[in-house]
Design brief:
Blueprint (H helix, E strand, L loop, with lengths): L20 H8 L3 E5 L2 E4 L1 H20 L3 E2 L5 E3 H6 L2 H4 L5 E4 L5 E4 L4 H11 L8 E10 L14 E11 L2 H21 L4 E5 L10 E7 L5 E6 L5 E3 L22 E4 L6 H8 L7 E8 L2 E8 L6 H8 L4 E3 L2 H6 L19 E5 L8 E4 L5 E6 L9 E3 L18 E16 L9 E3 L5 E3 L1 E8 H11 L1 E2 L2 E2 L10 E5 L2 H16 L4 E3 L6 H11 L3 E5 L7 E6 L5 E5 L3 H9 L1
Parallel strand pairs: 3-7, 15-17, 17-20, 27-28, 27-29
Antiparallel strand pairs: 1-2, 4-6, 5-6, 7-8, 8-24, 9-10, 10-21, 11-12, 11-21, 13-19, 14-15, 14-16, 18-19, 21-24, 22-23, 25-26, 29-30, 30-31
Helix pairs in contact: 1-10, 2-6, 2-10
Length: about 575
Protein backbone atom coordinates (compact mmCIF):
# COMPACT_ATOMS: atom_id res chain seq x y z
CA UNK A 1 0.00 0.00 0.00
CA UNK A 2 1.49 3.29 -1.15
CA UNK A 3 0.54 6.20 1.08
CA UNK A 4 0.46 8.58 -1.89
CA UNK A 5 -2.53 6.65 -3.24
CA UNK A 6 -4.05 5.34 -0.01
CA UNK A 7 -7.38 6.84 1.05
CA UNK A 8 -6.17 8.25 4.38
CA UNK A 9 -5.77 11.61 6.06
CA UNK A 10 -4.03 11.79 9.41
CA UNK A 11 -4.71 14.51 11.96
CA UNK A 12 -2.21 16.24 14.24
CA UNK A 13 -4.73 17.60 16.75
CA UNK A 14 -7.12 15.66 18.93
CA UNK A 15 -10.60 15.73 17.34
CA UNK A 16 -13.23 17.48 19.44
CA UNK A 17 -15.48 14.40 19.33
CA UNK A 18 -12.82 12.05 20.76
CA UNK A 19 -13.77 10.80 24.21
CA UNK A 20 -11.14 8.16 25.01
CA UNK A 21 -7.63 7.38 23.79
CA UNK A 22 -8.61 4.63 21.35
CA UNK A 23 -11.31 6.82 19.82
CA UNK A 24 -8.85 9.70 19.43
CA UNK A 25 -6.12 7.60 17.81
CA UNK A 26 -8.41 5.69 15.44
CA UNK A 27 -9.68 9.04 14.19
CA UNK A 28 -6.28 10.73 14.00
CA UNK A 29 -4.65 7.76 12.26
CA UNK A 30 -7.33 7.77 9.55
CA UNK A 31 -8.81 4.38 10.49
CA UNK A 32 -12.42 5.46 11.09
CA UNK A 33 -14.70 8.45 10.55
CA UNK A 34 -17.90 9.36 12.37
CA UNK A 35 -21.07 9.38 10.24
CA UNK A 36 -23.54 10.18 13.00
CA UNK A 37 -23.88 9.44 16.71
CA UNK A 38 -22.68 5.88 17.32
CA UNK A 39 -22.18 5.10 13.61
CA UNK A 40 -18.74 4.93 11.96
CA UNK A 41 -17.25 4.38 8.52
CA UNK A 42 -14.16 2.17 8.36
CA UNK A 43 -11.50 3.55 6.02
CA UNK A 44 -8.91 1.28 4.34
CA UNK A 45 -6.47 1.02 7.25
CA UNK A 46 -9.24 0.53 9.80
CA UNK A 47 -10.97 -2.02 7.62
CA UNK A 48 -7.74 -4.02 7.35
CA UNK A 49 -7.55 -4.17 11.16
CA UNK A 50 -11.21 -5.20 11.34
CA UNK A 51 -10.73 -7.92 8.72
CA UNK A 52 -7.67 -9.30 10.53
CA UNK A 53 -9.68 -9.57 13.76
CA UNK A 54 -12.38 -11.33 11.74
CA UNK A 55 -9.81 -13.78 10.37
CA UNK A 56 -8.71 -14.71 13.88
CA UNK A 57 -12.30 -15.14 15.05
CA UNK A 58 -13.24 -17.17 11.99
CA UNK A 59 -10.23 -19.49 12.23
CA UNK A 60 -10.84 -20.29 15.91
CA UNK A 61 -14.57 -20.81 15.36
CA UNK A 62 -13.87 -23.19 12.50
CA UNK A 63 -11.25 -25.03 14.54
CA UNK A 64 -13.80 -25.49 17.35
CA UNK A 65 -16.23 -27.16 14.90
CA UNK A 66 -18.65 -24.27 14.39
CA UNK A 67 -20.04 -23.69 10.88
CA UNK A 68 -20.45 -20.24 9.37
CA UNK A 69 -23.83 -18.98 8.16
CA UNK A 70 -25.19 -15.53 7.34
CA UNK A 71 -28.59 -14.50 8.65
CA UNK A 72 -30.63 -11.44 7.65
CA UNK A 73 -30.44 -8.27 9.72
CA UNK A 74 -34.19 -7.71 9.25
CA UNK A 75 -36.38 -9.91 11.47
CA UNK A 76 -40.19 -10.07 11.79
CA UNK A 77 -41.88 -8.89 14.98
CA UNK A 78 -43.72 -12.20 15.36
CA UNK A 79 -40.56 -14.14 16.25
CA UNK A 80 -39.56 -11.68 18.95
CA UNK A 81 -43.10 -11.62 20.36
CA UNK A 82 -43.03 -15.40 20.80
CA UNK A 83 -40.02 -15.12 23.11
CA UNK A 84 -41.34 -12.02 24.90
CA UNK A 85 -38.44 -9.85 23.79
CA UNK A 86 -40.30 -7.47 21.48
CA UNK A 87 -41.31 -5.55 24.61
CA UNK A 88 -38.64 -6.74 27.05
CA UNK A 89 -35.74 -5.50 24.91
CA UNK A 90 -37.09 -2.00 25.31
CA UNK A 91 -35.97 1.14 23.48
CA UNK A 92 -32.61 -0.37 22.48
CA UNK A 93 -34.41 -2.30 19.73
CA UNK A 94 -34.56 -0.58 16.34
CA UNK A 95 -38.13 -1.09 15.09
CA UNK A 96 -39.50 -0.35 11.60
CA UNK A 97 -42.42 -1.16 9.33
CA UNK A 98 -42.61 -1.96 5.61
CA UNK A 99 -44.97 -0.31 3.14
CA UNK A 100 -47.72 -2.79 4.06
CA UNK A 101 -47.46 -2.04 7.76
CA UNK A 102 -45.71 -5.27 8.76
CA UNK A 103 -43.34 -4.66 11.67
CA UNK A 104 -39.70 -5.71 11.89
CA UNK A 105 -36.60 -5.08 13.96
CA UNK A 106 -32.95 -4.69 13.05
CA UNK A 107 -31.13 -7.50 14.79
CA UNK A 108 -29.19 -6.66 17.94
CA UNK A 109 -28.71 -10.43 18.34
CA UNK A 110 -30.14 -13.47 16.56
CA UNK A 111 -31.40 -16.10 19.03
CA UNK A 112 -34.95 -16.06 17.65
CA UNK A 113 -33.96 -16.37 14.02
CA UNK A 114 -31.24 -19.02 14.35
CA UNK A 115 -33.53 -21.13 16.55
CA UNK A 116 -36.24 -20.97 13.89
CA UNK A 117 -33.77 -21.89 11.12
CA UNK A 118 -32.49 -24.93 13.05
CA UNK A 119 -36.02 -25.98 14.01
CA UNK A 120 -37.02 -26.01 10.35
CA UNK A 121 -33.99 -28.09 9.29
CA UNK A 122 -33.29 -30.51 12.14
CA UNK A 123 -35.66 -32.69 14.15
CA UNK A 124 -33.80 -35.82 15.29
CA UNK A 125 -31.27 -36.52 18.02
CA UNK A 126 -29.02 -37.83 15.24
CA UNK A 127 -28.77 -34.28 13.84
CA UNK A 128 -27.30 -32.88 17.04
CA UNK A 129 -25.06 -31.35 18.24
CA UNK A 130 -24.61 -28.47 15.82
CA UNK A 131 -22.96 -25.08 16.27
CA UNK A 132 -23.56 -22.23 13.82
CA UNK A 133 -21.98 -18.79 13.77
CA UNK A 134 -21.99 -15.61 11.74
CA UNK A 135 -19.99 -12.37 11.56
CA UNK A 136 -22.46 -9.62 10.85
CA UNK A 137 -23.54 -6.05 11.56
CA UNK A 138 -25.76 -5.56 14.59
CA UNK A 139 -27.90 -2.60 15.66
CA UNK A 140 -28.75 -1.31 19.13
CA UNK A 141 -30.35 2.08 19.71
CA UNK A 142 -28.05 3.09 22.55
CA UNK A 143 -29.33 6.00 24.61
CA UNK A 144 -25.83 7.52 24.84
CA UNK A 145 -23.39 6.14 22.27
CA UNK A 146 -19.89 6.96 23.50
CA UNK A 147 -16.21 6.09 23.42
CA UNK A 148 -16.14 5.57 19.67
CA UNK A 149 -16.37 1.89 18.75
CA UNK A 150 -16.71 0.79 22.37
CA UNK A 151 -20.38 1.84 22.65
CA UNK A 152 -21.84 2.20 19.16
CA UNK A 153 -25.30 1.88 17.64
CA UNK A 154 -24.07 -0.07 14.62
CA UNK A 155 -21.24 -2.56 15.15
CA UNK A 156 -19.72 -5.79 13.86
CA UNK A 157 -20.31 -8.89 15.96
CA UNK A 158 -19.63 -12.59 15.84
CA UNK A 159 -22.52 -14.56 17.30
CA UNK A 160 -22.59 -18.36 17.57
CA UNK A 161 -25.34 -20.73 18.71
CA UNK A 162 -25.02 -24.36 19.79
CA UNK A 163 -27.82 -26.92 19.89
CA UNK A 164 -27.56 -30.12 21.95
CA UNK A 165 -29.75 -33.00 23.15
CA UNK A 166 -29.05 -32.59 26.88
CA UNK A 167 -27.33 -30.43 29.47
CA UNK A 168 -24.19 -32.52 29.44
CA UNK A 169 -23.84 -31.89 25.71
CA UNK A 170 -24.60 -28.19 26.17
CA UNK A 171 -21.81 -27.95 28.74
CA UNK A 172 -19.36 -29.63 26.35
CA UNK A 173 -20.28 -27.18 23.58
CA UNK A 174 -19.97 -24.29 26.02
CA UNK A 175 -16.52 -25.38 27.19
CA UNK A 176 -15.33 -25.61 23.57
CA UNK A 177 -16.48 -22.04 22.91
CA UNK A 178 -14.85 -20.68 26.06
CA UNK A 179 -11.59 -22.33 24.99
CA UNK A 180 -11.92 -20.81 21.50
CA UNK A 181 -12.60 -17.37 23.00
CA UNK A 182 -9.46 -17.55 25.09
CA UNK A 183 -7.48 -18.38 21.94
CA UNK A 184 -9.06 -15.46 20.06
CA UNK A 185 -8.26 -12.88 22.71
CA UNK A 186 -4.76 -14.27 23.21
CA UNK A 187 -4.07 -13.98 19.48
CA UNK A 188 -5.46 -10.43 19.39
CA UNK A 189 -2.95 -9.41 22.06
CA UNK A 190 -5.51 -8.49 24.72
CA UNK A 191 -4.96 -8.48 28.46
CA UNK A 192 -8.32 -9.84 29.64
CA UNK A 193 -10.14 -11.72 32.40
CA UNK A 194 -12.94 -14.29 32.23
CA UNK A 195 -15.57 -13.41 34.82
CA UNK A 196 -18.87 -14.81 36.03
CA UNK A 197 -21.76 -12.63 34.90
CA UNK A 198 -25.49 -11.93 34.78
CA UNK A 199 -27.47 -12.95 31.70
CA UNK A 200 -29.35 -9.67 31.08
CA UNK A 201 -31.76 -9.56 28.12
CA UNK A 202 -30.28 -12.72 26.55
CA UNK A 203 -31.40 -15.01 29.37
CA UNK A 204 -30.10 -18.37 30.45
CA UNK A 205 -28.26 -19.62 33.50
CA UNK A 206 -24.47 -20.04 33.46
CA UNK A 207 -22.67 -17.28 31.59
CA UNK A 208 -19.28 -15.58 31.48
CA UNK A 209 -17.98 -12.23 30.26
CA UNK A 210 -14.56 -11.69 28.71
CA UNK A 211 -13.26 -8.38 29.99
CA UNK A 212 -10.35 -6.49 28.43
CA UNK A 213 -8.64 -4.54 31.18
CA UNK A 214 -8.91 -0.78 30.70
CA UNK A 215 -9.00 2.25 32.97
CA UNK A 216 -11.70 3.80 30.75
CA UNK A 217 -13.88 0.68 30.67
CA UNK A 218 -17.56 1.03 31.50
CA UNK A 219 -17.76 -2.41 33.11
CA UNK A 220 -16.60 -3.05 36.67
CA UNK A 221 -15.44 -6.50 37.72
CA UNK A 222 -13.90 -7.99 40.82
CA UNK A 223 -11.13 -10.54 41.10
CA UNK A 224 -9.45 -12.29 43.99
CA UNK A 225 -5.85 -11.39 44.78
CA UNK A 226 -5.13 -15.02 45.69
CA UNK A 227 -7.25 -17.44 43.62
CA UNK A 228 -8.83 -17.34 40.13
CA UNK A 229 -12.26 -16.13 41.22
CA UNK A 230 -13.55 -13.25 39.07
CA UNK A 231 -17.02 -11.85 38.38
CA UNK A 232 -18.62 -8.67 37.15
CA UNK A 233 -19.99 -6.43 39.89
CA UNK A 234 -23.57 -7.49 39.19
CA UNK A 235 -22.79 -11.16 39.87
CA UNK A 236 -19.88 -10.81 42.29
CA UNK A 237 -20.20 -12.23 45.78
CA UNK A 238 -18.16 -11.91 48.93
CA UNK A 239 -17.72 -14.31 51.81
CA UNK A 240 -20.66 -14.08 54.21
CA UNK A 241 -20.08 -11.97 57.28
CA UNK A 242 -19.81 -13.65 60.66
CA UNK A 243 -22.44 -13.02 63.31
CA UNK A 244 -21.30 -10.53 65.95
CA UNK A 245 -21.93 -11.52 69.57
CA UNK A 246 -21.75 -8.76 72.19
CA UNK A 247 -21.30 -8.86 75.90
CA UNK A 248 -24.14 -7.34 77.91
CA UNK A 249 -21.99 -4.30 78.64
CA UNK A 250 -21.55 -3.65 74.89
CA UNK A 251 -25.24 -3.60 74.09
CA UNK A 252 -26.44 -0.06 73.41
CA UNK A 253 -29.92 1.01 74.55
CA UNK A 254 -32.45 1.93 71.87
CA UNK A 255 -32.58 5.73 71.78
CA UNK A 256 -34.32 8.17 69.49
CA UNK A 257 -32.24 11.12 68.26
CA UNK A 258 -33.50 14.37 66.76
CA UNK A 259 -31.87 14.76 63.31
CA UNK A 260 -33.60 17.75 61.71
CA UNK A 261 -33.23 18.10 57.95
CA UNK A 262 -30.63 15.31 57.50
CA UNK A 263 -32.34 12.39 55.72
CA UNK A 264 -29.29 11.09 53.80
CA UNK A 265 -26.78 8.51 55.02
CA UNK A 266 -23.73 10.76 54.73
CA UNK A 267 -25.49 13.71 56.32
CA UNK A 268 -26.72 11.63 59.27
CA UNK A 269 -23.29 10.06 59.74
CA UNK A 270 -21.68 13.52 59.85
CA UNK A 271 -24.39 14.89 62.15
CA UNK A 272 -23.94 12.04 64.66
CA UNK A 273 -20.18 11.74 64.26
CA UNK A 274 -20.51 8.15 63.05
CA UNK A 275 -19.04 6.21 60.16
CA UNK A 276 -21.48 5.50 57.30
CA UNK A 277 -20.91 1.77 57.84
CA UNK A 278 -22.54 2.07 61.28
CA UNK A 279 -25.82 3.17 59.71
CA UNK A 280 -28.41 0.69 58.46
CA UNK A 281 -29.85 1.67 55.09
CA UNK A 282 -33.52 0.69 54.66
CA UNK A 283 -34.85 0.80 51.08
CA UNK A 284 -38.37 -0.08 50.00
CA UNK A 285 -39.45 -1.96 46.88
CA UNK A 286 -42.59 -3.52 45.50
CA UNK A 287 -42.10 -7.18 44.60
CA UNK A 288 -45.25 -7.82 42.62
CA UNK A 289 -47.98 -6.67 45.05
CA UNK A 290 -45.85 -7.14 48.18
CA UNK A 291 -43.86 -4.34 49.79
CA UNK A 292 -40.36 -5.37 50.86
CA UNK A 293 -37.74 -3.61 52.96
CA UNK A 294 -34.13 -4.24 51.93
CA UNK A 295 -31.44 -3.66 54.54
CA UNK A 296 -27.78 -3.03 53.72
CA UNK A 297 -25.00 -1.26 55.63
CA UNK A 298 -24.94 2.47 54.97
CA UNK A 299 -21.64 2.34 53.07
CA UNK A 300 -23.06 -0.20 50.56
CA UNK A 301 -25.45 -0.03 47.61
CA UNK A 302 -28.22 -2.51 46.91
CA UNK A 303 -27.40 -4.74 43.94
CA UNK A 304 -30.76 -5.01 42.17
CA UNK A 305 -29.64 -7.95 40.04
CA UNK A 306 -29.01 -9.94 43.22
CA UNK A 307 -32.26 -8.68 44.71
CA UNK A 308 -34.22 -9.78 41.64
CA UNK A 309 -32.60 -13.21 41.81
CA UNK A 310 -33.57 -13.45 45.49
CA UNK A 311 -37.25 -12.59 45.04
CA UNK A 312 -37.67 -14.74 41.91
CA UNK A 313 -39.98 -13.99 39.00
CA UNK A 314 -41.92 -11.15 40.65
CA UNK A 315 -41.77 -7.71 39.03
CA UNK A 316 -39.50 -5.44 41.04
CA UNK A 317 -39.57 -1.66 41.37
CA UNK A 318 -38.34 0.82 43.95
CA UNK A 319 -40.87 2.81 45.98
CA UNK A 320 -41.91 6.10 44.42
CA UNK A 321 -43.41 9.19 46.13
CA UNK A 322 -46.91 7.82 45.62
CA UNK A 323 -46.03 4.62 47.53
CA UNK A 324 -44.83 6.62 50.53
CA UNK A 325 -47.93 8.84 50.39
CA UNK A 326 -50.11 5.72 50.55
CA UNK A 327 -48.23 4.51 53.65
CA UNK A 328 -47.84 7.38 56.15
CA UNK A 329 -45.87 5.15 58.55
CA UNK A 330 -43.08 4.81 55.95
CA UNK A 331 -41.28 8.14 56.20
CA UNK A 332 -39.06 8.89 53.22
CA UNK A 333 -35.49 9.49 54.40
CA UNK A 334 -36.23 8.42 57.97
CA UNK A 335 -37.40 4.81 57.56
CA UNK A 336 -36.13 1.94 59.66
CA UNK A 337 -36.96 -1.77 59.87
CA UNK A 338 -38.63 -1.49 63.28
CA UNK A 339 -42.21 -2.73 63.12
CA UNK A 340 -42.09 -3.52 59.39
CA UNK A 341 -42.90 -7.22 59.72
CA UNK A 342 -46.03 -6.37 61.75
CA UNK A 343 -47.01 -3.94 58.99
CA UNK A 344 -46.99 -6.76 56.42
CA UNK A 345 -43.61 -5.85 54.95
CA UNK A 346 -41.21 -8.62 54.02
CA UNK A 347 -37.78 -7.74 55.43
CA UNK A 348 -34.69 -8.86 53.50
CA UNK A 349 -31.19 -8.19 54.80
CA UNK A 350 -27.76 -8.39 53.25
CA UNK A 351 -25.53 -10.89 55.04
CA UNK A 352 -23.19 -8.05 56.05
CA UNK A 353 -25.88 -6.79 58.42
CA UNK A 354 -24.91 -9.72 60.70
CA UNK A 355 -21.51 -8.12 61.25
CA UNK A 356 -22.81 -5.36 63.55
CA UNK A 357 -25.05 -5.61 66.57
CA UNK A 358 -25.76 -1.94 67.32
CA UNK A 359 -27.16 -0.01 64.34
CA UNK A 360 -28.22 3.55 63.61
CA UNK A 361 -31.30 3.70 61.42
CA UNK A 362 -34.40 5.75 60.72
CA UNK A 363 -36.92 6.06 63.56
CA UNK A 364 -39.94 6.01 61.22
CA UNK A 365 -40.85 9.60 61.93
CA UNK A 366 -39.64 12.76 60.26
CA UNK A 367 -36.39 14.33 61.47
CA UNK A 368 -35.57 11.44 63.81
CA UNK A 369 -33.18 8.50 63.81
CA UNK A 370 -32.66 5.69 66.29
CA UNK A 371 -29.38 4.45 67.75
CA UNK A 372 -28.64 1.10 69.38
CA UNK A 373 -31.07 -0.70 67.06
CA UNK A 374 -30.63 -4.48 67.35
CA UNK A 375 -31.69 -7.49 65.29
CA UNK A 376 -34.06 -9.72 67.23
CA UNK A 377 -34.83 -7.16 69.91
CA UNK A 378 -36.00 -4.26 67.76
CA UNK A 379 -36.72 -5.85 64.37
CA UNK A 380 -36.78 -9.23 62.66
CA UNK A 381 -35.34 -10.49 59.37
CA UNK A 382 -37.46 -12.69 57.10
CA UNK A 383 -34.66 -13.68 54.70
CA UNK A 384 -30.89 -13.29 54.51
CA UNK A 385 -29.11 -13.01 51.16
CA UNK A 386 -26.14 -11.43 49.40
CA UNK A 387 -27.80 -8.18 48.32
CA UNK A 388 -25.08 -5.51 48.17
CA UNK A 389 -22.29 -4.62 45.79
CA UNK A 390 -18.83 -5.83 46.74
CA UNK A 391 -16.05 -3.43 47.71
CA UNK A 392 -12.28 -3.52 47.46
CA UNK A 393 -10.93 -5.65 50.29
CA UNK A 394 -14.00 -7.88 50.79
CA UNK A 395 -13.15 -11.48 51.55
CA UNK A 396 -13.16 -13.90 48.60
CA UNK A 397 -16.10 -16.35 48.54
CA UNK A 398 -13.96 -19.15 47.08
CA UNK A 399 -10.71 -19.23 49.04
CA UNK A 400 -9.42 -18.60 52.54
CA UNK A 401 -7.45 -15.42 52.94
CA UNK A 402 -8.14 -13.96 49.48
CA UNK A 403 -9.32 -10.36 49.12
CA UNK A 404 -11.39 -8.93 46.27
CA UNK A 405 -10.09 -6.15 44.04
CA UNK A 406 -12.39 -4.00 41.86
CA UNK A 407 -11.15 -3.14 38.36
CA UNK A 408 -12.43 -1.54 35.15
CA UNK A 409 -12.74 -3.27 31.81
CA UNK A 410 -14.28 -3.34 28.34
CA UNK A 411 -16.56 -6.30 27.67
CA UNK A 412 -15.36 -7.93 24.44
CA UNK A 413 -17.17 -11.26 24.64
CA UNK A 414 -20.04 -13.00 26.43
CA UNK A 415 -21.01 -16.68 26.53
CA UNK A 416 -24.32 -18.11 27.78
CA UNK A 417 -25.79 -21.50 28.59
CA UNK A 418 -29.34 -20.76 27.47
CA UNK A 419 -30.95 -24.12 28.07
CA UNK A 420 -34.48 -24.08 26.62
CA UNK A 421 -35.01 -20.31 26.90
CA UNK A 422 -35.64 -20.02 23.13
CA UNK A 423 -36.24 -23.59 21.98
CA UNK A 424 -39.46 -23.98 24.01
CA UNK A 425 -41.32 -20.81 22.88
CA UNK A 426 -40.14 -21.30 19.28
CA UNK A 427 -40.83 -25.05 19.14
CA UNK A 428 -37.26 -26.18 18.40
CA UNK A 429 -37.73 -29.83 19.34
CA UNK A 430 -36.09 -33.10 18.38
CA UNK A 431 -37.20 -36.73 18.57
CA UNK A 432 -35.00 -38.70 20.99
CA UNK A 433 -33.94 -42.35 20.72
CA UNK A 434 -37.19 -43.42 22.44
CA UNK A 435 -39.36 -41.48 20.01
CA UNK A 436 -40.24 -38.70 22.47
CA UNK A 437 -40.29 -35.00 21.58
CA UNK A 438 -37.82 -32.92 23.60
CA UNK A 439 -36.64 -29.30 23.36
CA UNK A 440 -33.11 -28.62 22.14
CA UNK A 441 -30.59 -27.29 24.69
CA UNK A 442 -28.90 -24.12 23.48
CA UNK A 443 -25.83 -22.02 24.12
CA UNK A 444 -25.01 -18.66 22.58
CA UNK A 445 -21.67 -16.91 22.26
CA UNK A 446 -21.03 -13.30 21.25
CA UNK A 447 -17.85 -11.39 20.42
CA UNK A 448 -17.74 -7.69 19.58
CA UNK A 449 -15.43 -7.73 16.56
CA UNK A 450 -15.31 -3.96 16.13
CA UNK A 451 -15.11 -3.53 19.89
CA UNK A 452 -12.03 -5.78 19.96
CA UNK A 453 -10.42 -3.32 17.54
CA UNK A 454 -11.09 -0.48 19.99
CA UNK A 455 -9.99 -2.52 23.02
CA UNK A 456 -6.69 -3.46 21.36
CA UNK A 457 -6.13 0.20 20.45
CA UNK A 458 -6.92 1.16 24.05
CA UNK A 459 -4.33 -1.26 25.43
CA UNK A 460 -1.67 -0.82 22.72
CA UNK A 461 -0.73 2.83 22.32
CA UNK A 462 1.71 5.45 23.57
CA UNK A 463 2.00 9.23 23.44
CA UNK A 464 2.89 9.11 19.73
CA UNK A 465 0.07 6.90 18.48
CA UNK A 466 -1.10 3.34 17.95
CA UNK A 467 1.13 0.30 18.56
CA UNK A 468 -0.77 -2.52 16.83
CA UNK A 469 0.19 -6.12 17.67
CA UNK A 470 1.38 -7.91 14.54
CA UNK A 471 -1.66 -10.22 14.57
CA UNK A 472 -4.14 -7.40 13.85
CA UNK A 473 -2.00 -4.59 12.37
CA UNK A 474 -3.10 -3.13 9.01
CA UNK A 475 0.40 -3.94 7.73
CA UNK A 476 3.37 -5.64 9.30
CA UNK A 477 5.95 -3.18 7.99
CA UNK A 478 5.98 0.58 7.41
CA UNK A 479 8.73 1.64 4.98
CA UNK A 480 9.96 5.20 5.58
CA UNK A 481 12.26 6.35 2.73
CA UNK A 482 14.07 9.66 3.22
CA UNK A 483 14.99 11.10 -0.15
CA UNK A 484 14.66 10.07 -3.82
CA UNK A 485 17.41 7.45 -3.80
CA UNK A 486 15.90 5.90 -0.67
CA UNK A 487 12.49 5.79 -2.38
CA UNK A 488 13.93 3.71 -5.24
CA UNK A 489 15.29 1.19 -2.72
CA UNK A 490 12.04 1.28 -0.75
CA UNK A 491 10.06 0.36 -3.88
CA UNK A 492 12.41 -2.58 -4.46
CA UNK A 493 11.99 -3.74 -0.84
CA UNK A 494 8.24 -3.26 -1.10
CA UNK A 495 8.07 -5.51 -4.18
CA UNK A 496 10.19 -8.23 -2.53
CA UNK A 497 8.06 -8.21 0.59
CA UNK A 498 4.88 -8.45 -1.48
CA UNK A 499 6.31 -11.49 -3.30
CA UNK A 500 6.95 -13.09 0.08
CA UNK A 501 3.43 -12.37 1.37
CA UNK A 502 4.43 -9.60 3.77
CA UNK A 503 2.01 -6.66 3.69
CA UNK A 504 3.80 -3.31 3.88
CA UNK A 505 3.04 0.39 3.77
CA UNK A 506 5.50 2.54 1.86
CA UNK A 507 5.49 6.28 2.48
CA UNK A 508 6.19 7.47 -1.07
CA UNK A 509 4.82 10.97 -0.45
CA UNK A 510 6.77 14.14 -0.98
CA UNK A 511 6.78 14.99 2.70
CA UNK A 512 9.36 15.94 5.31
CA UNK A 513 11.08 13.34 7.47
CA UNK A 514 9.27 14.71 10.51
CA UNK A 515 5.84 14.23 8.91
CA UNK A 516 6.73 10.70 7.79
CA UNK A 517 8.01 9.69 11.22
CA UNK A 518 4.97 11.18 12.96
CA UNK A 519 2.53 9.37 10.67
CA UNK A 520 4.41 6.08 11.00
CA UNK A 521 4.17 6.29 14.78
CA UNK A 522 0.52 7.37 14.62
CA UNK A 523 -0.53 4.51 12.30
CA UNK A 524 1.23 2.01 14.51
CA UNK A 525 2.51 -0.79 12.24
CA UNK A 526 4.72 -3.15 14.32
CA UNK A 527 7.98 -2.59 12.42
CA UNK A 528 9.28 0.58 10.80
CA UNK A 529 12.05 0.31 8.20
CA UNK A 530 13.83 3.66 7.86
CA UNK A 531 15.79 4.04 4.63
CA UNK A 532 18.11 7.02 4.98
CA UNK A 533 21.77 7.98 4.96
CA UNK A 534 22.87 4.52 6.13
CA UNK A 535 21.87 3.14 2.72
CA UNK A 536 25.33 4.27 1.53
CA UNK A 537 26.71 1.62 3.86
CA UNK A 538 24.14 -0.94 2.70
CA UNK A 539 22.13 -0.62 5.93
CA UNK A 540 18.59 0.24 6.93
CA UNK A 541 17.36 1.12 10.41
CA UNK A 542 14.67 -1.04 12.00
CA UNK A 543 12.46 0.47 14.68
CA UNK A 544 10.23 -1.71 16.84
CA UNK A 545 7.11 0.44 17.19
CA UNK A 546 6.05 -0.95 20.58
CA UNK A 547 9.42 -0.80 22.34
CA UNK A 548 11.23 1.89 20.36
CA UNK A 549 14.24 -0.44 20.03
CA UNK A 550 16.36 0.34 16.95
CA UNK A 551 18.55 -2.08 14.99
CA UNK A 552 20.69 -1.69 11.85
CA UNK A 553 20.19 -4.46 9.29
CA UNK A 554 21.87 -5.05 5.96
CA UNK A 555 19.65 -4.50 2.93
CA UNK A 556 20.39 -8.03 1.74
CA UNK A 557 19.32 -9.49 5.09
CA UNK A 558 16.16 -7.41 5.43
CA UNK A 559 13.63 -9.92 4.09
CA UNK A 560 14.94 -12.72 6.29
CA UNK A 561 15.02 -10.41 9.33
CA UNK A 562 11.42 -9.29 8.78
CA UNK A 563 10.16 -12.83 8.25
CA UNK A 564 11.71 -13.86 11.55
CA UNK A 565 10.35 -10.84 13.41
CA UNK A 566 6.85 -11.14 11.95
CA UNK A 567 6.66 -14.89 12.42
Amino acid sequence: MRLSALFVRTQRETPAEAEVRSHELLLRAGHIRRVTSGVYAFLPLGLRVLRRVEEIVRSEMDAAGAQEVLLPVLMPRELWERTGRWEAYGPNLFRLADRKGAEYCLGPTHEELITTVVRNEYGSYRDLPVNLYQIQTKFRDELRPRSGLIRAREFLMKDAYSFDVDRAGMRVSYAAMVKAYRAIFDRCGLDYRVVEAQAGEIGGDVNHEFMALSAIGEDLFVSCDTCEYAANVEAAEARAAEVVELADSEVEPLEEVHTPGVPGIDEVAAFLGRDAGELLKCLFYMAGDTPIAVLVPGDREVNEFKLSRTIGEQALRMFGPEDFEARPNFVLGYAGPQGMRAAGVRVLADSRVRARANWVTGANRADHHATGVRIGRDFEIDDWADLANVHDGDRCPRCEGGRLVVGRSIEVGHTFQLGTRYSVPLGANFVDADGAQRPMLMGCYGIGVSRIMAAVAEQHNDEAGLCWPGSVAPAGVHLVPLGKDALVEAESVYSRLADEGIVALVDDREASAGVKFADADLMGCPIQVILGKKLREGLVEIKDRATGERTDVGVGDLSRFLRERLG
